[in-house]
Amino acid sequence: MTDMLYAARSRSLQDWGGEVGLTKHLYKVGLGVGTAKDIEQSLSAAQCAGRGDWSVIKCVEAEGLDEADALTRLAAKEALIDPRYYPQIKGERGIVKVKPANVENHFLVQNALAGEHQKAVRVIPLTIAAYLLRAAAG
Question: What is the pTM assigned to this prediction?
Fold first, then answer.
């Protein structure tokens, strides 16, 4: 089985983030083995960040990429949540606080550079996942 770089979300983690004033746009980025369904089951079974309702939004093959490098690249674009400050996430690394404006700007610039017609970008979980995986993969 191959390593997969994935972006996942937990509805309960996002609700918690909104309640404590962090943000509701919290996602988990990491490396897993197997299909998206396998990764989803392993995250939920392991109670990743104290949550059992994980859903993998998107995953891509990670050729020669390790999780530390991916998170370092991602930290240059978005804020990684420090697990020491939030005991609620049970020491889990790879939780990302996403600013929807950054996602929208990324795709607007990408479309402009490609010479495509400027159109409004809907910031939905799938576009956020694509943005996170592209930033993490470098």
Answer: 0.93
Dihedrals phi, psi of 44, to nearest 5 degrees: -70, -40
Domain range for 115 is: 3-137
Q: How many CA atoms lie within 13 A of 114 on its CB side?
A: 10
Question: Distance between CA 73 and CA 51 in Å, rounded?
Answer: 25
Q: Consecutive sets of 10 residues in the chain, 138 residues long: mean pLDDT of each?
A: 93 96 97 96 96 97 93 97 92 96 94 86 95 95
The total number of structural domains that make up the chain: 1
Neighbours of 58 (CB within 10 A): 18
* Count of other CB atoms within 10 angstroms of residue 101: 9
Q: Which of 7, 14, 63, 13 shows the shortest CA–CA distance to 30?
A: 7
Single-letter amino acid code for the residue at 37: K
- Cα separation, 116 vs 30, in Å, equals 31
- Spatial CB neighbours of 63, under 8 Å, sequence gap ≥ 6: none
Give the three-class secondary structure for 96.
Answer: strand
